[in-house]
Amino acid sequence: MSSLSASDRVRIRVQDVSVTYRTSLEKAPTLRGTLLRLGRRERVIREIPALRGVSFEVPHGKVMGVVGANGAGKSTLMRTVAGILPPTTGRVEVNGRVSTLLSLGVGFNRKLTGRENVVLGGLAAGLTRAELDSKYDEIVEFAELEEFMDMPMQTYSSGMYGRLAFAVSMAMRPDILIIDEALSVGDARFRRKSFKRMRELCEEDRTILLVSHALGTIEKLCDECIWMHKGELRMWDEPSAVVDAYTDFLGVKDEERDPVTMEDV
Amino acid sequence: MTAPTAPTRERREDEFSAVSHVYEPHRVGLPPLGPYLRGLWRRREFMFELSRTELRAQHFNTVFGQIWLVLNPLLLACVYFILVDILRSRSGGIEFFAHLMSSLFIFQFVTDSMRQAVKSVTGGGKLILNTAFPRVMLPGASVLTAFKRFLPTLLIFIPVYFAAGHRPGFELLWVVPVVALFGLVASGLAMLVAAGQVYFRDLKNFLTYALRIWLYGSPILYHESQVPDRYHFLLVLNPVAPLLAAWSDIIDKGIAPSAGDLALGAAWGVALFLVGGLFFISREREFAVRL
Asked: Is A173's CB within 8 Å of B22's CB?
């Protein structure tokens, strides 16, 4: 990678992306319901616009924060960037290997042991067994879960869960790391460690997309920030400006910017 | 910007972890097959590992544990033998038991694959929502699991095979291609039901009964020659009937299967595999939206 082309400097380019979930009115689509509706010759499809015309770019080696209320489309946006959900319209361009750390549980199966989950998750993400073997110790060491690796994951606390997920994502050595509200589960010491690790990743020219409700974290870690509101991009600016606007919007007055809004709750 | 060499080292040229991806609107249609298959090949270890853990998770907390892998089919064969023996006036004896057992076991390989596969995608939840990988590996692992459950049943069949007076000859080698064709049928149907379940969540419930009817409609609890003429159409419509006839020729009669049975079985296998595969792969990108 000696010569970086112009397009290579932009790691992620999201152009006018919309995602619409199509669901029938029922909770789960069933043959019975379908047959009944076929008999009545009606088609019930409800369209839920999760993202509407979102465009932004993330440059090389930057941390992009994403804030927004619940249901604003943050997770959908992350899944689209990760290539899991196809956009309904628009275009997403991603340059580099993506590792996702999406809202708790990177494909973790609670019945299997921690070790089995790490192996399965790694293989699914495209690591070879040899790569995985060499990284396994690093993962366990970073997550500090040595004595728990051979226990079923249902015995894990949510903090341990999050730590393992974070360690696996880090071990993938991604060019682009997508973190969705997963940092908030570790204890203070682990969170500090994760911060440090993320900073290191940035210095290595890697790019991070960070979704968090912890506005303090966003201000401290991010270079830029976007604010999602009801599926639309409301703001894209310096983290402090976005956090100010967002807290104003939430109706939090300056004197109320206490740990409750600024840190994880 | 000091460009490190580390990230380039691991770069690969496939759809799922390539250096550059472009995601564009996409509903139904085939992804580029070349990169898809390469991604599949690269992740083959994942499929084996998934099947291994599936196998380990079953019978995890029973007393007999993994012994159930042979105990289950053995008991089932006995149940059906007693049923058929009562229904028929004269006893078929050990020879018939050998036919029933071997046919039932290979048939179970196909139905086991489908039973396992039907929940593979809808049960894949988090894995599908959070990781991009070729989804076809989920039903693929189901077939693999079913095959691993089928193999030990061959072991318990060996004593029955000899007790029935059969002696192995070179014709027994025909077992290998015939099992491969069964695998083709199983994979095709597994992909069909796995994708079908995403759209119709009732499929799993129907499948239980469909598979049972299929068992009774196949020459397993009886010989192919015993089928009355008015039911002969069932054998023509049944994808595994020619393969079961070939299987019976090899095991029961110790002869090479007829070319007609093999050709028909292969045609069914290839057709189901292609239909199932194309259906699954063209739909799989939509799965994440539907779960």
From this structure: no
Residues of chain A with Cβ-Cβ distance to B8 below 8 Å are 1
**Can you give the CATH number for the domain in which A208 is found?**
3.40.50.300
Mutate to test the interface with B, among A11, A85, A88 (most CBs of B within 10 A): A85
Q: Give the domain range for residue A63.
A: 6-97+174-262
Per-residue pLDDT tens digits for A140-159: 888 888 888 888 888 888 78
Q: How far apart are CA B7 and CA A144, in angstroms?
A: 25
| Size of chain A, expressed as the number of residues it contains | 265
The count of domains in chain A is 1
Q: Is B17 within the bounds of a domain?
A: no
Q: For residue A97, what are its two tokens?
A: 């290997």
Rounded distance between C-alpha atoms, residue B97 and residue B165, angstroms: 12
B84 touches chain A (CB under 8 A): no
Whole-number Å distance between alpha carbons of A226 and B170: 71
Residue of chain B whose Cα is closest to the Cα of A32: B202
A54 by DSSP, 3-state: which?
Answer: strand
- For residue B14, tell me if it sits in a domain: no
Per the structure, the count of domains in chain B is 1
Backbone φ and ψ for A95, nearest 5 degrees, come out as -110, 100
Both tokens of A260, joined, read 């409750």
**Which of A100-109, B11-20, B48-57 is the most confident on average?**
B48-57
Specify if A102 maps to a domain. no
Domain-embedded: residue A90: yes
Q: Does A161 touch chain B (CB under 8 A)?
A: no
Residue A257 above 70 pLDDT?
Answer: no
Residue A94 to residue B23, Cβ atoms within 8 A: yes
- Residue A87 touches partner B, C-beta closer than 8 Å: yes
The 10s digit of each residue's pLDDT in B125-175 is 677 777 778 889 999 999 999 999 999 899 899 999 999 988 888 889 999
How far out from the chain centre does Cα B96 lie?
Answer: 25
Contact B160, B103 (CB under 8 A): no
CB A243 within 8 A of CB A215: yes
Contact A91 B5 (CB under 8 A): no
Rounded to two decimals, the ipTM of the complex is: 0.71
- Put simply, the answer to whether B199 touches A29 (Cβ < 8 Å) is yes
Interface A-B: count of C-beta contacts within 8 A? 154
B126 vs B5, higher pLDDT: B126
A32 close contact with B: CB closer than 8 A? yes
